[in-house]
Design a protein that fits this description.
It is a single chain. The protein is built from 7 helices and no strands. It is mainly α. Helix 4 runs antiparallel to helix 5, helix 4 runs parallel beside helix 6 and helix 5 packs antiparallel against helix 6. The longest helix is centred in the middle third of the chain and has 42 residues. The two termini are about 35 Å apart. About 30% of the residues are buried.
Amino acid sequence: MLGYAAPGAYDLFAPSKRASATIILCVVHMVLLLALIAVLVMQHQLLDDFLHGIKASPSAANANDLRVNLVQGLESIVGMSMFIVMLCWLYRAYRNMITMRMYPRFTAGWAVGYWFIPILNLFRSFQILTEMLVLNGRKFAEKGTLGGIWWCSWFFGFLIPIFYTVSGGSSDQIEMLIRRTDSAVLGAILTIISNAILIFYIRRVMELQATEIANYGNPSEPMPLVAAVMPPRPQ
């Protein structure tokens, strides 16, 4: 919802397992993206040779298709898994912000839900991640620049390969395939950058929340709602 989220009846604990799982999947995703770049560069060379009259054998062409499809399939599976686990971490971390009376702009549910709404997810995702740094550590308000780099790399890393896939491109089939291959390489590079920044965001938010949670006692024990959320009644 728009406006400040009201404190709710949430327990308080650091979602360290979700953060660790997201970071691990981010790293695995980055490794697969590097592998994807490697096989796409090989495909580019194969297509470029064909464009200049050097035809590859059927076995070499089939091997190229198998490599690209295998790596792309694994990258898609890990990328989707990373996105789901990241949203689970985001939901828990946002609930902590509400419980600690940081008054975030959105509820925990909408902090996740906005990622699935077309158009809104283009800028709400940036606002949500940036707000987490600002509210958890106010001295990090200047990190909006880093958030902008994350947003640009995430958005264009997703958009550029799709644009070249759906667009007609060149009338020459081989040149069109070369452009699509190059756009996929560029998209993979941008996605690696966005993953690296996302890891920084997660680690930094976890460090800042751990400091705040320590002020409330043992983070492994649920924080009583009355003591942690509700202000004392005036006498």
